[in-house]
Known about the structure:
Distance between the termini: 24 Å
Number of helices: 11
Largest sheet: 9 strands, mixed
Number of strands: 11
Strand content: 15-25%
Amino acid sequence: MGPAKPQLTIIVPSFHRPNELFELLERLFAQTLKDIEILIVEQSEDPDLIARLEALGDPRIRVLARPPLGLPGARNEGIRHARADVLLFIDDDDLPIFDDWAAAHLENFADPLCMGAVGRLSQGKHGDPPSPLARLVKWGAFEYTLFKDPRTLAFGSLRKENIDFLTFSGGSIRKELFERVGGFDEGLPINEEHSFFFRYQRVRKPGEYFVFDPRPIIWRRVDVRGGLDRRAKPDWHRKELADRIFYYHAIVAHYFPWRFRLLYPLFPLRALWGASKWVWDPDNRGHSTSERVSATVDLIVGLPRAVVANGFRRARAEVRRVRHL
């Protein structure tokens, strides 16, 4: 007879961030909810790091040493090996702010119709103050736009049920949904979780819902090196535009073909708008004002080239739509 099933599995994809990973583990060990499994999908291919993790000797930790899988692939690998019925995800550069983070997530699943929950994201280590426009933020949060890209607004302070999707650093979900719907599309560079939710809408049962719960908060750190270094590469802004164009071609066109065809002339402009807005997001405060201005101009000038290049890239895409885990 195997070990008892834990109440919650926390899945941590990790890639070249050993110091931050151990800092995260300290926060997870301090959680008030003790009946947990911590499943680390470690992709750094560093045997010394694996040995350090195993030397912790905590029975709640399980380490899956894997070659680089990409974020959706690493999450799928964690899901395949998770033992609990409820899964909670966090990236290796994020930190729970409070010790009841895991318990607050699990409380939502006392309602059998709650299929998933997502908590609040903070840019500060002590939590951000509530927005003065809390009701407006609630109205627009966690919904899809006309273009079927996500509008997240995860800094809200008001609970909201029946949201369209979850984010998966600081998001929890019933494992049964992955068994019903399939896993994450692998090979996507951005918005990798959303094709899962598009598939889920087709098999959603009456009364099921997702919820934004502002109580569990994570500190979303964007200045940590390692991982995929999305903001540190020389072509950081160009890659953002290319990835957004690719998302529309590979995902929106697949799940919403008529919408994509009818609005196709607008999708490149939408990608340009999203990438330009991201350049000026506080997440990119490490870049100077002059760098951001230059990046914005470069995006506008390079839009036609990016559309052509990523239209062809879509034809060669190696997106593997995972139906079963």
